[in-house]
Amino acid sequence: MKTFIQIIFLGFVFIFPQPAQAQLLSVSGYVKNFISGQAIENATVYESVSGIGTITNSEGYYRLLLNKGQQNLRISSTGYEIYNSSFTMVSDTIVSVELKPRNLTDTKIVAGNKLKKDSTGNAENEETSRRKR
User: What's this model's pTM, rounded to 2 decimal places?
Assistant: First the structure.
């Protein structure tokens, strides 16, 4: 009887092995402004291998749960340069970054309202001016 129980036990071990569970690891940190040191809220934190992403909270904090192995982390926010990092996850990891503001002086903004001044100095819409002619 004892041998029979041992055979059944070994059968269960080999027939129904415990499924291998992927161990998730944490990557977390803070995203701040390089110049002022202030937290950047709603910055995008994205891992391109797994496709997992999140955004930072009001303190600039984020946390992702990822599998072990190679990771490609991308952190971005409007008005800031993009941060990219590749690393191998072997344990919980902290990645805190300071994003540099983009140089906005290179951006050209053209704005106008198509107003034309007449000889008296009054401004009138170009369309109205054409209709009068």
Answer: 0.62
